[in-house]
Amino acid sequence: MRQLDAQGAFEHPWMRAAFRDVPRDAFAPDTVWVWHPDDDRYHPVARADDDQRWAALVHHPTEPVVTQVDDGRPVHADGTGRLPTSSLSAADAVLTTLAATDPAPGSRVLHIGTGTGYDSALLCERVGHANLTTVEIDRTLADAARARLLGLGYRPHVVCADGERGHAPGAPYDRVLCTASLSRVPAAWIAQSAPGARIVTPWKSTLQPAGLAVLTVGADRRVAGGRFGMPLTFMDLRGQRRTDNPLPRVYTPQRWAESRSSTSPSRRASSTTSMPASPSASSCPVSTRPVRPHLMPPPPGGCPRTLPGPTCAPGRRTSGATATWPPRPSGRTRGGWRRAARRCSTSA
Ligand SMILES: C[S@@+](CC[C@H](N)C(=O)[O-])C[C@H]1O[C@@H](n2cnc3c(N)ncnc32)[C@H](O)[C@@H]1O
């Protein structure tokens, strides 16, 4: 909580109280999953085997914990997984989306992507459980989340369904919060919102791989408009999973280096000082730490490890710039989600 406080993550007082009162670890399953860069697979970490490691993963303030792989059926014969499909979202990402949603007490909220149920509990603290409908597409996850919530005394309406259709019986909603990424906002969410309602959802496109859309629904409930702001990455909505992103193949580090050295002499001079292209260069400005292919299914033939940019010796880390894919967390600063849009990157 201290680190989140220092980052200014508690933009509204109710968020601090809710965060304090809802036990995050009560929403984590006994087995979580950790990506191993050496074999590019997700391996289980069982609480019973390593309680301390499990707790460190669950309580990390800026990292999500993968709670399901391959839609609940790990694809590899040894029980390891390929694609993360649900998570306990990173605490700072949860707070970012809650701050952007900012429901009032009594607001009617539609939440898509229940996952573990953690952010549903936080929302219950604010709006009251009778006002929250939370939709999860995966039956096992929905049942587990409902049981956890009930166990702590929260009784929101937990629906197992495709959240892209919204949930008409609970409409109209004052807030729609989606905690999975999309590139197309479903029309149903707009139609089921009250005029002036707010829709908050992680959003991405091929050229903009991470963002948070904060939209206001029009009076006629046919359109919604607003800002597509800060870099924020979540797992994709099941129906909008992208099987590939061509960018890392088109702009390889090699092509980047070539393009830098084949331009004008002055450009060439600056590129050799600021952008060492050799893996053994000693003054590398960026990190190539292993990247979890966390949020996007790998393309056929493997998962791209780096975004276009210079390469450098493995293990070197610097803050700020990153050559990772998807963008890695870089922290959050005081000043709320609007101002954080300029500098915050986090993942869930
Ligand atoms: C990043 S996880 C959300 C985690 C949640 N914020 C938490 O901390 O527990 C995204 C969740 O969205 C769910 N999901 C994906 N597509 C969905 C859809 N079309 N409708 C409802 N839920 C969906 C996934 O099964 C997954 O559990």
Write a short abstract of this structure.
Helices cover 26% and strands 19% of the residues. It is built from eleven helices and 13 strands. Helix 2 (13-21) crosses helix 5 (118-127).
Write up what this structure looks like:
Helices cover 26% and strands 19% of the residues. It is α/β, with parallel strands linked by helices and 348 residues long. The strands form 4 sheets. It has a 7-stranded mixed sheet with strand order 7-6-5-8-9-10-11. The structure holds S-adenosylmethionine. Residues 85-89, 112-113, 115-116, 118-119, 135-138, 141, 162-164, 179-180, 234-235, 237-239, 348 line the site of S-adenosylmethionine.
**How many helices does DSSP assign?**
11
Unreliable stretches (pLDDT < 50, length at least 5) are: 265-346
Oligomer: single chain
Describe the sheet with the most strands: 7 strands, mixed
Give the neighbour order of strands across the main sheet.
Answer: 7-6-5-8-9-10-11
Which keywords apply here?
binds S-adenosylmethionine; Rossmann fold; two-stranded antiparallel ribbon; single chain; disordered C terminus; globular; 11 helices; 348 residues; alpha/beta; 2 domains; seven-stranded mixed beta sheet
